[in-house]
Amino acid sequence: PDRPLSVTEWRKLKESLGNPVRFDIKMIHALFASGAELDIAKSLLTFATMETGTLSYELLLRYLSLCVSGGHDAEVFDVYDIMKGSFSSLETGASTLFIKSFSRTARWKEAVNLLQEVKKVFTPSSRNYGDIIAAAVLHGDMTTAWALYDELMEKGLSPHQETWDALFKGAMSQSEHQERLLGILLHMRNNQIYPQYSLASSIKTSFERLPGQKWTGSWTSATPKGLCRCCGSELESIQLTAEEYQQLKDRVMTDIIQGQDVFNKTTPEELEHFKAFVQRKPAFDVVVDGLNVANTNKDKSKLSATLLAVVSELERQGLTVLVLGRKHMLRATRSWERHNMNLIQEKAHCFFTDDISEDDPFLLYATLHSGNHCRFVSRDLMRDHKACLPDGATRRLFFKWQRGHQLVVDGYVVADRRVRFQSILKYDTTIQTSGDSWHVPYDDTEDRSTYEVPQQWLCLTQKR
Fold first, then answer.
1. What domain range is 330 assigned to?
2. Is the model's pLDDT at 172 over the cut of 80?
3. This prediction's pTM
4. Within this chain, do residues 409 and 454 fall inside the same structural domain, yes or no?
5. Which three-class secondary structure state does DSSP give residue 25?
6. 333 in helix, strand or coil?
7. What are 429-439's pLDDT values in tens digits?
8. Which of 231, 221, 236, 235 is closest to 455 using CA atoms?
9. CA 52 to chain centre
10. What CA–CA distance (Å, rounded) separates 204 from 376?
11. Span 122-169, pLDDT tens digits
12. Statement to judge: residues 316 and 439 lie in one domain
């Protein structure tokens, strides 16, 4: 309907559709999807009450979604009173919607009470916390904002960028919050998080407004040699020191390769067999994730040809190569031509794991075991592994090592054309500071691969 209907009109509409089961729920879904006026949905609720004498939880929840998405916060308060009076408890969906709506109004502190209720049953989401933190900041209550932020972090949740944005905006020009804001930047550094432009702008403004500190922010980029084009200072090298490399290698071997999680992906016997294989071989220069590299070609009949082209290019460069594959790649099929697989085994050392195994632990072990010069070829993200590493500093080293050692095929592999790899930058693309300067890489990429790093930088310098 494009206007509110009377009870009689709703009944006629229902009959004309053959009196479907759950008519009211289906109808409110349709109203929500079409962005209908609230009055039309209200008239549906009146009809449902007349038909059944009550309003179901599900119908009220759908109506609540309509109110919240349309910004009808006063109506939300009425729905809240009805639901609190009619039902003994609220589930996640309703609580989240109420927290979002209350946080936008003068009644935002009631959202804090709602959060306490939610915590008795389940862990609130970072979005729940973020909504209330933004409200607290807006109403000048930084004490509540920081307390909720600390709670969110203690629960191991990842804040949304809007939450950081709110904190930077709220704490602007207030020196007492400076340490807390720097803590956010260091958290982003340790977890390979890049701010989006809007957050980078708030970071810039908050530094520039710090009383008596004379910070200046500029939008800039880096030279190929890793110098800031604005202040000329040298960005951190992508290379790990010998000490950092050893520290990372020890942690990866202990926490990932020997950690409990690894045997969800392989067997202890297979891993030991692989370790013995690696010990017998010379140090590798490059380890290739065979399946991952082959699958960059969407044409499934060219998988072995794609892998062969990449291995041939690495061999041409005089490198000692290890190819990690799966046993099914050795069974001659249209995708895996025997001739190509034989050539690959002539050009490179090869190890084929069981088909149920995951290649990551093998790839990490072989690359790290070979030494700091050894790189790996894969488009994989290895996101799971950072979770196994115990602390921010080790995670940061892992990402840095990955960015500095990951070779990615540039474009597509085409027959009879040399394979090219994307060049590895000399500097590390991560938030960094030297005390009187900060360099913050930023862009608006939502879901990035590890090798996709921002090209734009915010340079913050302090005049002495």
1. 242-422
2. no
3. 0.83
4. no
5. helix
6. coil
7. 999 999 899 99
8. 221
9. 45
10. 37
11. 899 999 999 999 999 999 999 999 999 999 999 999 999 999 999 999
12. no
